[in-house]
Amino acid sequence: MSKSAAKTFIILILLLVPHVSVAVAVTVESIAATVEDRIITTGEVITESKILAIYEAQRARLPIRGIFSMGLLNQMINRELVYREAVRAKFDSGERDVIDEMLYFEEKFSKPEEFSLFLEEEGLLLGDIVEWLHKRQVTLAYINEKISVMSYIGARDVEKYYREHSENFEGRPFEEVEDEIRLQLLAKKGEEYLVEWISDLRKRGKVKYFIIPQDQPLY
Questions:
Q1: β-bridge partners, 41
Q2: Strand, coil or helix: what is 38?
Q3: Do residues 106 and 115 lie in contact, with contact meaning Cβ atoms separated by under 8 Å?
Q4: What single-letter DSSP state applies at residue 89?
Q5: Which residues of the chain form beta strands (DSSP E)?
Q6: Residue 153 DSSP one-character state
Q7: Distance CA 197, CA 205 (A)
Q8: How far apart are CA 131 and CA 38, in angstroms?
Q9: φ/ψ of residue 90, rounded to 5
Q10: Which pLDDT score is estimated for 218?
Q11: What is the pLDDT of residue 4?
Protein backbone atom coordinates (compact mmCIF):
# COMPACT_ATOMS: atom_id res chain seq x y z
CA MET A 1 0.00 0.00 0.00
CA SER A 2 1.26 3.48 -0.82
CA LYS A 3 1.98 6.02 1.92
CA SER A 4 -0.85 8.23 0.67
CA ALA A 5 -3.30 5.34 0.79
CA ALA A 6 -2.13 4.49 4.30
CA LYS A 7 -2.86 8.06 5.38
CA THR A 8 -6.35 7.69 3.97
CA PHE A 9 -6.93 4.61 6.11
CA ILE A 10 -5.69 6.45 9.21
CA ILE A 11 -8.30 9.13 8.50
CA LEU A 12 -10.94 6.42 8.24
CA ILE A 13 -9.80 4.96 11.52
CA LEU A 14 -10.65 8.27 13.17
CA LEU A 15 -14.27 7.55 12.34
CA LEU A 16 -14.10 4.95 15.03
CA VAL A 17 -12.87 7.37 17.67
CA PRO A 18 -15.03 10.52 17.68
CA HIS A 19 -13.91 13.25 20.06
CA VAL A 20 -16.71 15.79 19.57
CA SER A 21 -19.77 14.86 21.56
CA VAL A 22 -22.30 16.09 24.10
CA ALA A 23 -20.91 15.99 27.61
CA VAL A 24 -23.06 14.43 30.32
CA ALA A 25 -22.92 15.60 33.92
CA VAL A 26 -21.71 12.70 36.08
CA THR A 27 -21.25 13.22 39.80
CA VAL A 28 -21.26 9.64 41.13
CA GLU A 29 -19.38 6.78 39.49
CA SER A 30 -21.70 4.17 38.08
CA ILE A 31 -21.91 1.60 35.32
CA ALA A 32 -22.11 3.38 31.96
CA ALA A 33 -22.29 0.36 29.66
CA THR A 34 -21.35 -3.29 29.28
CA VAL A 35 -19.79 -5.11 26.32
CA GLU A 36 -20.35 -8.81 26.81
CA ASP A 37 -18.66 -9.42 30.20
CA ARG A 38 -16.73 -6.10 30.19
CA ILE A 39 -18.09 -3.38 32.48
CA ILE A 40 -17.31 0.24 31.60
CA THR A 41 -17.90 2.73 34.40
CA THR A 42 -18.40 6.46 34.17
CA GLY A 43 -15.12 6.90 36.06
CA GLU A 44 -13.28 4.85 33.42
CA VAL A 45 -14.67 7.12 30.70
CA ILE A 46 -13.43 10.21 32.55
CA THR A 47 -10.01 8.61 33.04
CA GLU A 48 -9.99 7.71 29.33
CA SER A 49 -10.53 11.37 28.46
CA LYS A 50 -7.48 12.30 30.54
CA ILE A 51 -5.29 9.59 29.00
CA LEU A 52 -6.28 10.75 25.51
CA ALA A 53 -5.58 14.38 26.44
CA ILE A 54 -2.10 13.40 27.59
CA TYR A 55 -1.39 11.18 24.58
CA GLU A 56 -2.42 13.87 22.09
CA ALA A 57 -0.70 16.77 23.86
CA GLN A 58 2.88 17.85 23.33
CA ARG A 59 3.31 18.18 27.08
CA ALA A 60 1.05 17.04 29.94
CA ARG A 61 0.14 19.72 32.44
CA LEU A 62 -1.31 18.71 35.81
CA PRO A 63 -4.04 18.81 36.94
CA ILE A 64 -5.69 17.28 33.88
CA ARG A 65 -9.40 17.93 33.49
CA GLY A 66 -11.50 14.93 32.53
CA ILE A 67 -15.04 14.80 31.19
CA PHE A 68 -17.67 12.16 30.58
CA SER A 69 -19.20 12.12 27.11
CA MET A 70 -21.31 9.66 25.15
CA GLY A 71 -18.93 10.00 22.20
CA LEU A 72 -16.03 8.83 24.33
CA LEU A 73 -18.09 6.02 25.82
CA ASN A 74 -18.98 4.84 22.32
CA GLN A 75 -15.31 5.05 21.36
CA MET A 76 -14.42 2.73 24.24
CA ILE A 77 -17.22 0.34 23.31
CA ASN A 78 -16.11 0.20 19.68
CA ARG A 79 -12.49 -0.35 20.64
CA GLU A 80 -13.44 -3.19 22.96
CA LEU A 81 -15.53 -4.82 20.23
CA VAL A 82 -12.78 -4.55 17.61
CA TYR A 83 -10.11 -5.75 20.03
CA ARG A 84 -12.15 -8.83 20.96
CA GLU A 85 -12.75 -9.54 17.29
CA ALA A 86 -8.99 -9.28 16.61
CA VAL A 87 -8.23 -11.68 19.46
CA ARG A 88 -10.80 -14.18 18.21
CA ALA A 89 -9.28 -13.94 14.72
CA LYS A 90 -5.80 -14.51 16.25
CA PHE A 91 -4.71 -11.34 14.51
CA ASP A 92 -0.99 -10.59 14.52
CA SER A 93 -0.67 -6.83 14.47
CA GLY A 94 3.09 -6.85 14.04
CA GLU A 95 2.98 -4.01 16.54
CA ARG A 96 6.02 -2.16 17.64
CA ASP A 97 7.20 -2.68 21.17
CA VAL A 98 4.62 -1.35 23.63
CA ILE A 99 7.51 -0.29 25.84
CA ASP A 100 8.44 2.31 23.21
CA GLU A 101 4.87 3.60 23.33
CA MET A 102 5.00 3.60 27.12
CA LEU A 103 8.16 5.70 27.13
CA TYR A 104 6.56 8.08 24.62
CA PHE A 105 3.58 8.47 26.95
CA GLU A 106 5.71 8.94 30.06
CA GLU A 107 7.84 11.58 28.33
CA LYS A 108 4.74 13.75 28.04
CA PHE A 109 5.30 14.62 31.71
CA SER A 110 7.98 17.11 32.69
CA LYS A 111 9.08 14.99 35.65
CA PRO A 112 8.75 11.29 36.53
CA GLU A 113 7.10 12.40 39.76
CA GLU A 114 4.26 13.99 37.77
CA PHE A 115 3.63 10.74 35.93
CA SER A 116 3.54 8.83 39.22
CA LEU A 117 1.18 11.44 40.69
CA PHE A 118 -1.16 11.09 37.71
CA LEU A 119 -1.28 7.30 38.13
CA GLU A 120 -1.93 7.66 41.85
CA GLU A 121 -4.71 10.21 41.43
CA GLU A 122 -6.47 8.05 38.82
CA GLY A 123 -6.01 4.83 40.77
CA LEU A 124 -4.03 3.35 37.89
CA LEU A 125 -1.07 1.01 37.75
CA LEU A 126 1.66 1.13 35.14
CA GLY A 127 0.19 -2.05 33.69
CA ASP A 128 -3.13 -0.28 33.06
CA ILE A 129 -1.42 2.22 30.74
CA VAL A 130 0.49 -0.58 29.02
CA GLU A 131 -2.79 -2.45 28.43
CA TRP A 132 -4.41 0.72 27.05
CA LEU A 133 -1.53 1.24 24.62
CA HIS A 134 -1.56 -2.43 23.59
CA LYS A 135 -5.29 -2.43 22.86
CA ARG A 136 -4.96 0.80 20.93
CA GLN A 137 -2.18 -0.60 18.74
CA VAL A 138 -3.97 -3.87 18.02
CA THR A 139 -7.29 -2.15 17.32
CA LEU A 140 -5.89 0.40 14.87
CA ALA A 141 -3.81 -2.23 13.07
CA TYR A 142 -6.79 -4.59 12.75
CA ILE A 143 -9.06 -1.85 11.41
CA ASN A 144 -6.39 -0.81 8.92
CA GLU A 145 -6.03 -4.37 7.65
CA LYS A 146 -9.77 -4.94 7.36
CA ILE A 147 -10.24 -1.74 5.36
CA SER A 148 -7.20 -2.47 3.18
CA VAL A 149 -8.57 -5.90 2.23
CA MET A 150 -12.17 -4.82 1.68
CA SER A 151 -11.59 -1.48 -0.05
CA TYR A 152 -9.96 -2.52 -3.32
CA ILE A 153 -10.49 -0.07 -6.16
CA GLY A 154 -9.93 -1.35 -9.70
CA ALA A 155 -8.56 0.61 -12.66
CA ARG A 156 -11.97 0.56 -14.36
CA ASP A 157 -13.59 2.19 -11.33
CA VAL A 158 -11.04 5.00 -11.45
CA GLU A 159 -11.47 5.52 -15.19
CA LYS A 160 -15.24 5.53 -14.88
CA TYR A 161 -15.14 8.14 -12.13
CA TYR A 162 -12.83 10.31 -14.24
CA ARG A 163 -15.19 10.16 -17.23
CA GLU A 164 -18.28 10.91 -15.17
CA HIS A 165 -16.68 13.77 -13.24
CA SER A 166 -14.23 15.15 -15.79
CA GLU A 167 -15.53 18.68 -15.27
CA ASN A 168 -14.17 18.60 -11.71
CA PHE A 169 -10.59 18.15 -12.92
CA GLU A 170 -10.42 21.27 -15.11
CA GLY A 171 -8.93 19.52 -18.12
CA ARG A 172 -6.15 17.77 -16.19
CA PRO A 173 -5.11 14.51 -17.91
CA PHE A 174 -6.18 11.19 -16.38
CA GLU A 175 -2.61 10.16 -15.56
CA GLU A 176 -2.20 13.29 -13.43
CA VAL A 177 -5.29 12.70 -11.29
CA GLU A 178 -5.44 8.89 -11.23
CA ASP A 179 -3.95 8.51 -7.74
CA GLU A 180 -6.08 11.35 -6.40
CA ILE A 181 -9.27 9.70 -7.68
CA ARG A 182 -8.26 6.30 -6.30
CA LEU A 183 -7.75 7.81 -2.83
CA GLN A 184 -11.16 9.50 -2.97
CA LEU A 185 -12.84 6.23 -3.92
CA LEU A 186 -10.87 4.32 -1.29
CA ALA A 187 -11.94 6.79 1.38
CA LYS A 188 -15.61 6.52 0.40
CA LYS A 189 -15.61 2.73 0.16
CA GLY A 190 -13.59 2.37 3.36
CA GLU A 191 -15.96 4.63 5.28
CA GLU A 192 -18.99 2.67 4.08
CA TYR A 193 -17.40 -0.62 5.03
CA LEU A 194 -16.25 0.63 8.44
CA VAL A 195 -19.70 1.89 9.40
CA GLU A 196 -21.32 -1.38 8.32
CA TRP A 197 -18.69 -3.49 10.09
CA ILE A 198 -18.91 -1.61 13.40
CA SER A 199 -22.71 -1.79 13.27
CA ASP A 200 -22.49 -5.55 12.81
CA LEU A 201 -20.03 -5.91 15.70
CA ARG A 202 -22.41 -3.96 17.92
CA LYS A 203 -25.33 -6.20 17.01
CA ARG A 204 -23.32 -9.30 17.89
CA GLY A 205 -21.44 -7.81 20.84
CA LYS A 206 -24.17 -7.67 23.47
CA VAL A 207 -23.75 -3.94 24.11
CA LYS A 208 -25.97 -2.54 26.85
CA TYR A 209 -26.22 1.07 28.07
CA PHE A 210 -26.93 2.09 31.65
CA ILE A 211 -26.76 5.85 31.17
CA ILE A 212 -28.51 8.46 29.04
CA PRO A 213 -28.56 10.16 26.59
CA GLN A 214 -28.13 7.32 24.12
CA ASP A 215 -28.89 9.28 20.94
CA GLN A 216 -25.26 10.20 20.17
CA PRO A 217 -23.43 8.82 17.08
CA LEU A 218 -22.23 5.26 17.64
CA TYR A 219 -19.22 5.51 15.30
A1: 31
A2: strand
A3: yes
A4: T
A5: 31-35, 38-41, 207-209
A6: -
A7: 12
A8: 15
A9: 55, 45
A10: 42
A11: 47
